[in-house]
Write a structure and sequence with these properties.
505 residues; alpha/beta; 3-stranded mixed beta sheet; 11% strand; globular
Length: 505
Amino acid sequence: MAAMNRLNDTTVGTLPAAVVRPPYNRRALKNGIVHLGIGAFMRAHMAAATEAAIAAGDLRWGITGVSLRQADTRDALAPQDGLYTLAIRDADAQGQPRQRLQVIGAVRNLLVAPENPQAVLEAIAAPDTRIVSLTVTEKGYCHDPATGTLRLDHPDIVHDLTHPHAPRSAIGMLVYGLQLRHAQGHGPLTLMSLDNLPANGRVLRAAVLRFAEEIDSTLRTWIERQCRFPCSMVDRIVPKTTDGDRAMVCAALGCVDAWPVLGEPFFDWAIEDEFAADRPDWTLGGARFVPDAEPFERLKLRMVNGTHSSLAYLGAMAGWQTVDEAIAQPALRTHIEALMRDEIEPTLPALPGLDLAAYRHNLLARYGNPALAHRTQQIAMDGSQKLPQRLLGTLRDRLARQLPVPRMALGLAAWMHYLRGVDELGQAYGIDDPHATQLTALYQQSLGQGVSPHTVQAMLAYAPVFGDLAGHAALTAALVPLLQSLQAHGVAATLEAVNHGELTA
């Protein structure tokens, strides 16, 4: 690979004919979008939809990608003029993996915020910028997951309030960028979250306004009245790129791409059509503009993200390393399908034209995609930030209606069990979570000493995750036998027992 040419504006024209390439003049692109958190998901999802809009002739939507922590994405893509390959992977009729390659040209500039925060603020303030979008993960909003409010005591927020020229957080960068934009007399922006949060636009709006209130009430009023914060729902499975993936893509290209991204063929993006200025025609890339994203958000968070997390914690504890390996276990597949059908679907709002049975069947097929090798440990990250959105909303709805929750509770029990840091094969792993120190200590002091109503309630008392579920008697009663079984008998036996109607409170 070392002797191969590097993918860039010069070499892109020499790629094999089967590789889709930008059909437009990249030098004519204007930078209409600033994206905070230019990771794999954004490059396989929003950038791909933006590429379709640009390829249709609208050259106003080049992307300035901002890395908030590390320089690795910039270092990989800058020598490639921002070009990278999107590999869409699935299996053929014989079950053999296959891929379709497209070079994405929408990313024109790459910034690393810690190196030059002022450049990020200036990009937000630039007159061509119309949209600032974010994929910063749930923890990037510096909010309390249980209440959704901005944490003014969060270390990054404390820092940003006293360092206006060098903000660390996405919220601080947005507000100081908007402050500069307002001072320069440029128009308002659309700020759009692409993260897996219920009402993600409203969560972002509340955080931005609360931060702005701390520094300038006039700015807060301008943002509140002029800027827009549409909610959106994004859906595409994007596993972490491995060295093997890189080698496979480079061999197919005949040149080096230091950081390709992978994705499944499935693509969904529902966006509230509420923008402060113009927007790309993302429908050309498979998106849809809707008056209200909430029903789509709830569908995705509960059906996709909720079952993904449940599967990940059960799979990781059992030693099933990838999603396709885990869903191939008959007991786990039976559980996940019943979890969707019996406990999640009854909590969903009506979506005209949606066939829930077909959606469920398609989702199981997506999980079984052997070409993605999506690691369960990757999905298991940041559970304290993810579970309130993915599992606890469904649990609250069912508990409020006094409905049984054995399968929902199993996902929550699996997360608590996962906090012990050792799987059933004796392999240790780190807990990758912003609350890892507190949660692992709490586990050792409670469930690590044995399962009882008292130790389960000690876990539920962790307010940043569980909020008003602390001390909930019915939830405690559902969790106790599941945790006892996981500790004593393991994942496979527990799944069999749940599937046979055992282990009920």
